[in-house]
Amino acid sequence: YDVSISLDNIEHFYKKDATSLINWMVRNSKKQVIFTPLGDYIKIKEEGNTDPDTHKSGWTSKNFNEMGWATITFPNFHPLLGIGAFFAFNCENLKEEFERITNELKNKSWAK
User: Fold this and answer.
1) Ramachandran angles phi, psi of 94, nearest 5°
2) In DSSP terms, which residues pair with 31 in a beta bridge?
3) What percent of the residues of the chain are helix, what percent strand, and what percent coil, each to the nearest 5?
4) How far apart are CA 10 and CA 52, in angstroms?
5) Exposure check for the chain: N or C terminus, fewer CB within 10 A?
6) How buried is 37 (Cβ within 10 angstroms: 0-12 exposed, 13-18 middle, 19+ buried)?
7) Nearest-CA neighbor of 88 among 110, 111, 61?
């Protein structure tokens, strides 16, 4: 695939399973994009929970930066909930792609 996207998804998996999904995305697409809440927002404590609506893992930009991904963090993305969120993305020419995306965001009329 050209791009694989996971939006508000990986936090519903335990870290091991989410990491398997991320690895699958890397193996099967040229670019990967993930969006998730910032940190352990409403994360359950018990292992083995199968309710698909619960958050089973929490993620930070650091988790993805350590894997060599680029991230864009919005610390107050959900102001009413008091939490942030972030995009993580990965591709072959990551530095150039990061600069392109950053410039694109800066040039948007709503961002000025």
Assistant:
1) -60, -45
2) 3
3) 35, 30, 35
4) 11
5) C
6) buried
7) 61
Do 38 and 83 contact (CB within 8 A), yes or no?
A: yes
Lowest mean pLDDT among 44-48, 70-74, 80-84, 103-107: 44-48
Q: What is the pLDDT of residues 14-27, one digit of tens each?
A: 999 999 999 999 99
- What is the reported pTM? 0.82
Higher-pLDDT residue of 109 and 72 is 72
Q: Which two tokens stand for residue 66?
A: 């350590």
pLDDT for res 44: 78
pLDDT on residue 110: 63
Nearest CA-CA partner of 35 in 3, 67, 59: 59
Distance, in Å, from the CA atom of 11 to the CA atom of 40, rounded to the nearest integer, reads: 9
Helix (H, G, I), strand (E, B) or coil at 13: coil
Q: What angle do CA 34, 65, 79 make, to 5 degrees?
A: 55
Alpha helices in the chain (DSSP H): 15-28, 61-65, 94-107
